[in-house]
Amino acid sequence: MKTQVLPVTESSLAMAAKIINDGGLVGMPTETVYGLAANALNAQAALRVFEAKGRPADNPLIVHAAEVEEIPPLVRAIPEAARRLMDAFWPGPMTLILPKADCIPKEVSAGLDTVGIRLPKSRAARALIRAAGCPIAAPSGNRSGRPSPTTAQHMLEDMDGRIPLILDDGPCEVGVESSVIDATGEVPVILRPGGITPEMVQAVLGRVSVDEHVMSPLAEGDVARSPGMKYRHYAPKAKTVIFEGERDRVIAAICARYDAATAAGERVAILGFDEHDFGGRTRISLGHAGHPQDAAARLFAALRELDERGETLALCEAVDTAGIGLAVMNRMGRAAAFDIEHV
Ligand code: AMP
Ligand code: MG
Fold first, then answer.
1. What global pTM score does this model have?
2. Which of 119, 135, 169, 295 suits a disulfide with 286, CB 3.0-4.6 Å?
3. pLDDT in tens, 206-252
4. Nearest Cα to Cα of residue 121 among 67, 164, 78
5. Within 6 Å (CB) of ligand 1, which residues are found?
């Protein structure tokens, strides 16, 4: 199969909608990352998503709608706290876990009694959902275990020959996947941090809870509240280590490790901020220090670049976990298997 990459136009949207209505898969731009889109009401189409990604069958897909009015038929209930989050943050980078209605096939929810629902802000994504006329199941458009794609080109790297079409709407604005919030109980719990931050949820609900596994690996015997927590994600081939602490000590520790590893024959790259002086050592930029949104937008591309360059060791500057920094550290932490050095 030849994979076409087309800009978002009326005719490419119509092509994409037809593919989805016929049970096929399309690369869909959103404000978070590129998604692998299928008709969320078609079990066969959902199975094709798992196959194209190589995704474990127990990791559910998120269902995307274009309008709030499309949500009630997809769920059995919308608790009050969920309603307030919807009003505050949709359309936007937030997925709410809600009790699923029967129309959502078990293939989409991976057998769970709940379903993740999101109203994306991206105009291209909303236009595609409207054109298709059905809710769209879309996980991130990477092959399982690879960093999520934040450009159409990255999605093509992973999906070339597996799907007929990727809609190209340029680089994603947010750059990390949506915040996943379990809204089935009285106190919503953030299962995966993203563009809608704990501080933002706190401001709307007056309380917030963040799952303990956001910044720690699952231990043997721990139950994952979100199946995605179980899997090693975003893993570059390079061994990845994060350095956390006072800025100058972090820079010194990274430089020392870099030199020792290079002397030992490793290919090393630093993931660091533009303002920090690493003395000419190889650096892949995370953007401006103190701008965690820069790091969010660049992290996945940086992880892909490590592999392209054949690096064997990546030394990363930690980001403060305030705001979207928590989402950055969650993804960086998982890429590093939570190997964090406090200096
Ligand atoms: P992705 O679509 O690749 O961004 O991944 C979706 C994430 O949402 C994964 O981490 C899933 O485990 C999580 N997720 C989706 N549906 C549910 C659900 N019903 N309950 C808990 N987590 C979910
Ligand atoms: Mg994913």
1. 0.96
2. 295
3. 999 999 999 888 877 888 888 888 776 778 899 999 999 999 999 99
4. 67
5. 59-60, 62, 97, 109, 112, 114-116, 139-140, 177, 180, 191-192, 226-228
pLDDT tens per residue, range 270-324: 999 999 999 999 999 999 999 999 999 999 999 999 999 999 999 999 999 999 9
Residue 245 CA, ligand 1 centroid: distance in Å:
31
Instruction: Tell me which residue has its CA closest to atom 12 in ligand 1.
Output: 228
Q: Where in the chain is the domain with CATH 3.40.50.11030?
A: 239-342
Q: Which residues make beta-bridge pairs with 340?
A: 242
Compute CA distances 298 → 267, 276, 302, 324, whole Å: 21, 17, 6, 13
What would the CATH number be for the domain defined by 239-342? 3.40.50.11030
